[in-house]
Amino acid sequence: MKQITLGRTGIISNKNGFGALPIQRVDKDYAAMLLKKAYNAGITFFDSSRAYSDSEEKIGYALSDVREHITLATKTFARTADEFWDSLKASLNMLQTDYIDLFQFHMPSVCPKPGDGTGLYESMLEAREQGIIRHIGISCHRLDIAEEAVCSGLYDMLQFPFSYLAAEKDVALVELCKEMNVGFIAMKALSGGLLAKSDAAYAWLDQYDNVLPIWGIQRESELDEFISYIENPPSLTPELRAVIDKDRTELLGSFCRACGYCLSACPSGIQIHQCARMIQLIRRSPSAMWLSESGQAMMKNIENCIECGQCRAKCPYELDIPALLKANLEDYNNMLSDR
């Protein structure tokens, strides 16, 4: 079993973390089955957020009896000190625990620091002094915020998108974390569902001995794949390298990572995180659901784009979102006419 020590936290985990965002989409007992099966197979790192509806509640329901044997990480969207304490109290209650191993600021617009006027970082320190949290982390999609957090010395852990579609600057961020002894949690290791070969994703990430991937799991078949890698980790064979090279050729560049930053910015209610990568989704997953009446209605709403630019301003990857939407709509309509 390959293990990783997460920076200066001293937290030890095997190379499979459980990303608990998707279990909000399944019922409580099925989620509990997945969580218990993961734990029994040797997975001990579980990551959630206050923003993931009932995800924390399901973790508490399933794993409270093994609390001392697992690492619980969760996140807060709090933007004020009062919101911070309300969020932390709710997380403790839902997770059925009296402490959280890793508490993370979730997608902040700036890097929280002492004396910035929000009281957020000071609240983190107070919670740590009280023993309610053990380590301070930050989860974000913006490279500038991530780099600032790592270099500040204020954060024990960074959660950031990292997959074999990563750019050189993303790899440099991983190396910076290693240099600064900051733990690195790789979210979106399958790039929001665009990457289909989990063995290729695992093998590529396994090159980085300071990176813990958290896999978003909602089906038992998905979990079984990652469990199998505990004892038989995939290696970067020529066949898997060919898969990676092909995906990088097809996808690298201006593609939507489905981070969701832009959604609240759209006055027309366009589901940008789906529409801006629709053609990639159709090509890489069963197309029926995307070409259904509801899928067509979702795509047609792109016609209501007023090109206000708010989504472009919110995108941490500086994508030309209106152009992506229009291109996807044109290709989508062509697919419909060719059916």
Mind explaining what this structure looks like?
The chain has two domains: 3-237, NADP-dependent oxidoreductase domain (TIM Barrel, Alpha-Beta Barrel), CATH 3.20.20.100; 263-338, no CATH class. 43% of the residues lie in helices and 14% in strands. The protein is built from 14 helices and ten strands. It has helices spanning 28-41, 55-63, 81-95, 120-129, 143-152, 168-180, 198-205, 220-231, 238-251, 272-275, 278-284, 293-300, 310-314, 321-338, and strands spanning 3-5, 12-14, 17-19, 45-47, 71-76, 100-106, 133-139, 157-161, 183-187, 211-216. Helix 2 links the parallel strand 4 and strand 5. The chain is globular, with a radius of gyration of 20 Å.
Q: Brief overview, please?
A:
With 339 residues, the chain is an alpha/beta fold.
Tell me the distance between the termini: 48 Å
Total DSSP helices: 14
Strand order of the largest sheet: 3-4-5-6-7-8-9-10
The structure class reads alpha/beta
